[in-house]
């Protein structure tokens, strides 16, 4: 559950390979060892009465894999899926269990090799997303890439928060004939 | 029940039924019981047997026994019939009445 | 480790070390009541458990030791040093007896010798080796297969009266392994054969666990004129060909003796001497061979052979069967779409096959829940001792079968609940006496199956739950708003709330406390449900309802817009079209009329916020959970499918109203509804 799942200890490793992708025109990166594959966007089946951030599930070769839309969690602008939209299948610890899940990405770029020395701590202010979700920021070409700390995004506390929202916004709306 | 000729043929067929409803007719029509042959190998063809009961099986046993008294050997040529096979298996007669009966006994 | 015998062995070894420890203490203090009790209990437990897993000899042996300790307890027998030595020897002997449910003759002789020593001490009526033996023999007779010979001589008019021997033989073969000899009986006259008169004589060798009564029952409907003789053949009885022939009245005894005196091969001789037809001899030889084989099996005394298989192989099998079922659904759909006769017949064939395979696979995975009860008994005993309480655990329904995975994952929550009952529920003997209750507390653990579900009850006659204190605690912890108006049921549910119990032990609240939310979560992850009921001062009852399996269910597929939802078929009462509906005046809940009663009805489209427009005619599926009926309105009912349940994973844990997903023939995903949860929602 610690940072090692996304970022190896910095003193031991000089460089990192990250997959970079775009959410609402912002660049994000995830260390590639947890990534299983990148899929083209496909129809996601909704799971009823769950937070919007949890888009639903897809069938991946007979397995049911949940797909999340981080843009909702990060309160970003949502755009309809395009030909560029992808689902990144990645293994994340959720509640202590290694869970494969899909992350919706507006665009997936490339695997970038970065020097660990170039990773800067996240700025304390001025972020659109919670600082806790970010393990660092690195500059690559003309972009800043936000390195995500996925274990925090899917930490039980965060999930509870999201779930609570849904129970509040849906006050037992029991049929409205 | 066909192929009935004056001189007892060495082959004869039973079709369809081999049960209490058929045995009286079989007994009456079986050519070998009228003109008892001697020391022959007689082949009884069983075709499309769908109904078997122990009366039918008893008739086969009795036929075999009576023919044997005159030195005849009765060989059953049977088309695959699950009903017949099951009946013979249940009654423990697969070897003594089964298809292609061995000519000699073990004992 | 869930093999009852393995569990028994492990526990017996623990009891033996308890016994040993007690004996060593007793050597120093021969009158220590505590140690004598411990020794008595260990023998008592081994005796009972041994009997349950078929170690009858061991059970008998320990009975004598139990008696011995009983006498010691009552002060009738003094534990001298030599006696303690003898008991220690007996303890080692018990360890050897644990190897094999039917010990060797040598070990049995050791048992007998030791028993004599003990009975001399106890003055117990001399249960010598003879009684021992007969007791043992009758025990094994119940467990092992027996060999019977059944001679059947139908009445002459049997065929004409509409009887046939084939159904009887079929029925006998259902009781065990049979070998039949059919021949023409003595009434057969080759010169005057009447084909409709029965002259058959049949002898059946039957190896069966069934009782003589159940064999007799096979012939219950045949006429009185039939001759039916049922003879039990024991393994020791030497069955020679000659005996069989005589028995079958084929050859007269004295004629046979003459022939046998001339020796060589009896079969040939009997035939040559013209005593019996070769066929008869042959079939009798066959029968003899069969009887020999059966006796060999009987001697080996293997009541039932089983193989141990690693869990992961079973899981793999289950997964593959699951995949097969999905594939079969796809083929079925393809066949339907292509309208190809051959494809549909193939699909049908495959469906039959995979249903059978699925059932067999499930059956393999089903285990009696009783395999865990033994451990609980131990736990309760130990814990009660630790807490200074007197508690009896009574179990019921140990034979109830559950998926092994469910049993394994159920173990922890059950331990938790039992522990809670002991810890917070049942009072100390002193308190109980003050309250006018028997000093010894009772715990009940029962399992049963109904409506395709397993119900597990844990009940104690302890202090019960104090609703007021729970409520004030809950308010204190911020689980409930002050002034909330809750009925007792709702208050009980509070102890399942995470915030209520995890913070710290709340043993001051009379009742449960530690980690009930964990229990609830574990049960829910098994698609189960926990309910709690309590009467202050009288006790508490926890009811767990579980599905029998977690892998595949029979489902009713329904549709709302483009979404598909599966309802477990076990909950479906019926499907109705366009029902008249009203609204509850107070709550605004939609009601429909169902068989002269108004039942709540939920429109899935609204409840799940599915987009699109409803069709003109909607369908309503009436479901039942326990006593509660509810309507679920959908756009269409698609049909009945075998549904492989896929977990939605951690992320979706607690998704309301959905218990999993399934992959349909076209690769799309359908949600499987948690009907119990929906009904629950409807109640609110």
Automatic annotation (TrEMBL), chain A:
> What CDD domains does the record tag this protein with?
CheW
**Species of provenance:** Marinobacterium alkalitolerans
- Fetch the Gene3D superfamilies from UniProt: CheA-289, Domain 4 (2.40.50.180), SH3 Domains (2.30.30.40)
**Domain (CheW-like): residue spans on this chain:** 15-159
Ranges in a coiled coil: none
Tell me the leader sequence span: none
Domain of life per record:
Bacteria
Where is the organism placed in the taxonomic lineage, from the top?
Answer: Bacteria, Pseudomonadati, Pseudomonadota, Gammaproteobacteria, Oceanospirillales
Protein name, entry field: Purine-binding chemotaxis protein CheW
User: What SMART domains has UniProt attached to this entry?
Assistant: CheW
Q: Which Pfam families match?
A: CheW
From TrEMBL, chain B:
The protein's matches in PROSITE patterns, at most eight in alphabetical order, are given as: STAS
The family database entries (Pfam families) matched by this protein are listed as:
STAS_2
**Which species does this protein come from?**
Marinobacterium alkalitolerans
The name of this protein is STAS domain-containing protein
Report the Gene3D superfamilies cross-referenced here.
STAS domain
Cite the STAS domain residue spans from the record: 1-107
TrEMBL record, chain C:
Residues with Phosphohistidine modification: 44
SMART domains per UniProt: CheW (SM00260), H-kinase_dim (SM01231), HATPase_c (SM00387), HPT (SM00073)
Q: Where is the Histidine kinase domain?
A: 309-550
Task: Kindly give the Pfam families that the UniProt entry links to this protein.
Answer: CheW, H-kinase_dim, HATPase_c, Hpt
What does it catalyze? ATP + protein L-histidine = ADP + protein N-phospho-L-histidine
Database matches in PROSITE patterns:
CHEW (PS50851), HIS_KIN (PS50109), HPT (PS50894)
HPt domain ranges (all copies): 1-101
Task: Report which residue ranges the record marks as coiled coil.
Answer: none
Question: What is this enzyme's EC?
Answer: 2.7.13.3
- What's its top-level EC category? transferase
Gene3D superfamilies documented for this protein: Histidine kinase CheA-like, homodimeric domain, Histidine kinase-like ATPase, C-terminal domain, HPT domain, SH3 Domains
In this chain the CheW-like domain maps to 552-684
Keyword annotations of the record: ATP-binding, Chemotaxis, Kinase, Nucleotide-binding, Phosphoprotein, Transferase, Two-component regulatory system
Q: What does this protein do?
A: Involved in the transmission of sensory signals from the chemoreceptors to the flagellar motors. CheA is autophosphorylated; it can transfer its phosphate group to either CheB or CheY.
User: Which protein are we looking at?
Assistant: Chemotaxis protein CheA
Naturally occurring in which organism (per UniProt): Marinobacterium alkalitolerans
